[in-house]
Specification:
The protein is an alpha+beta fold. It is 28% helix and 26% strand.
Length: 235
């Protein structure tokens, strides 16, 4: 039974029926994997000390496979074209195929720009596929499996909320395609989950995302609720 997951979704504002529909979807809450350079990093993760990066840091990686200079960026809005507003996120949840919630006064994007970029946010990148042949060289040979991404998102959000006010949380697979969204209704939150097909689609990324108030840097957050739902995969 997925009663805990249903209760979490209800706390995030979903109706009971909507929560039940979400947990019944084919791709709901399958394990995801995090590859790491050092075994000590994997041990820390499994002990509840989770290092979370930022969009800004991801834009600075020299290794293209690890980072993308245009993370959270969209292009080519013409005069009069509309960008969806943050207050609309609740009604778009099912359409986006993700679980997200709002804990703030609003999350607003602007329109009529040639380029828009999300300033910064906490980001944790994982993959839906256990593929050491793809990830070992660039990301590291040590791997942690997150068995319950929904509960993981909830517990880590609780840890983050102890120090920051959270605007938006989202956990979802990354979609691969163009960042040119001319003529489309799309938000900067959506764009933080879109990357070019080359060279990234092979990574099958699943991303955890926290937009918070205040200046941020990559850092560790700790939760003693994390260890039961993660496991180090030994070679």
């Amino acid at each position: 039974m997925l009663s805990k997951e249903i209760e979490i979704l209800k706390q995030w504002g979903y109706t009971s029926d909507a929560a039940k529909r979400i947990v019944k979807t084919k791709d709901f809450n399958k394990p995801v994997y995090r590859f790491l350079k050092e075994e000590s990093f994997a041990d820390d993760f499994c002990n509840g000390a989770v290092y979370i990066s930022t969009l800004s840091k991801c834009r600075q990686h020299e290794n293209q496979e690890q980072g993308d200079q245009l993370e959270g960026t969209m292009f080519s809005f013409g005069v009069g074209e509309e960008v969806s507003q943050g207050g609309n996120l609740s009604s778009k949840r099912s359409h986006l195929g993700a679980y997200s919630f709002i804990d703030c006064d609003g999350y607003t994007d602007g329109g009529n720009y040639e380029m828009l970029k999300h300033k910064n946010a906490f980001v944790l990148c994982t993959t839906k596929s256990y593929r050491p042949d793809i990830f070992n060289e660039s990301f590291g040979p040590h791997c942690v499996r997150i068995d319950n991404p929904l509960v993981f998102t909830w517990e880590l959000s609780e840890a983050i909320k102890r120090e920051y006010k959270i605007n938006v949380v989202k956990a979802s697979e990354v979609k691969y395609g163009s960042r040119d969204v001319s003529g489309k209704s799309v938000s900067l939150l959506d764009m933080c989950f879109i990357k070019p097909s080359a060279p990234y689609s092979i990574q099958e990324e699943f991303r955890f995302f926290w937009d918070v108030i205040g200046e941020i840097e990559p850092r560790v957050f700790y939760s003693d609720k994390i260890p039961p739902i993660v496991k180090k995969i030994t070679k």
